[in-house]
Amino acid sequence: MRVFLLLVALLWGLPSAAVERCDTRVATAKVALGEVQLAYQSIGRASDPALLLVMGLGGQLIHWPDEVVRRLCGQGFRVIRFDNRDVGLSRWRQDAPAADLAYGALRHRLGLSVSAPYSLRDMAGDALGLMDALGVRQFHVLGASMGGMIAQHLADLVPARVQSLTLIMTSSGARGLPSPSPELLALLARREAPSREVALEQQADLLAALGSPAVSDDRERLLQQAETAYDRAFNPEGVERQLLAILAEPSRVELLNRLRVPTLVVHGTADPLLPAMHGVHVAAHIQGSELKLIPGLAHRFQDAFKEPLLAAVLPHLRAYRQHGLWARL
């Protein structure tokens, strides 16, 4: 009877306990890692398996939807999200060189080498430094877009520490894969704005272009999202340096071929920036990986695709997390 009552108490108490444990309003902390200072949030119990979220180009930790973070945490994970160097509340060294993005983009189109102030592998080192600073030995990694590229490097740097890898809307960086339209690239590269109002309109334009044609975006909501990100932090020069790091990156096919980490690749069939073949190519070069294509998904976390994304990701994460009470329930 005592065991039965304990189970009942646990089961009835789980929802409220999970809500309290998975509060996304926790304070944003900072950690100094040499020339980099990273801003991060840790959501969930420190004793739970860690899940590191790595955001894409110019994205801030707030671009991981709170509801999705709570759902991930509710599966029994300690969810750690952070601002990559040079964006959000994270910082790179103050004497950072100016980025000549137009020149770098031209060299990339011509198949020539591109110089960048830092590399995606350096950014993977930042993520690893954060986990070291938090005392986390083993962890799961979920990366989106550029964050998926960084995650590939992270799994290659410390394969014994990465328990599972989830790559969303990302690429191998190989030559010959489908390119985005020139119009979308122009929107992505448009970073100079004479005023806050213009900057918000530009960001709303980009968000709309990255969205799914199956979803009708509310312009006011896009502007509100742009406003939230702008008011938290605005560093267009940092985004340009991140973009140069992507352009300077060679193909990661050899890296992917040597990965032996349990991997799920998720991609949308309507991705305008990295068409679906990018995801297919990534999965084809990671031994034993699983590929899930989501019809209509583009290159944004839109509400209409929240459940399909979670349905794709959660079984993979559950399969490789530590066994315990949460896994059994």
TrEMBL record:
Organism domain of life: Bacteria
Signal listed as a keyword: yes
Keyword Hydrolase: yes
Signal peptide: 1-17
Keywords carried by this UniProt record: Hydrolase, Signal
Pfam families listed in its UniProt record: Abhydrolase_1
One example GO MF annotation: hydrolase activity
InterPro entries in the cross-refs: AB_hydrolase, AB_hydrolase_1, AB_hydrolase_fold
Limits of the AB hydrolase-1 domain: 49-299
Protein's UniProt name: Alpha/beta hydrolase
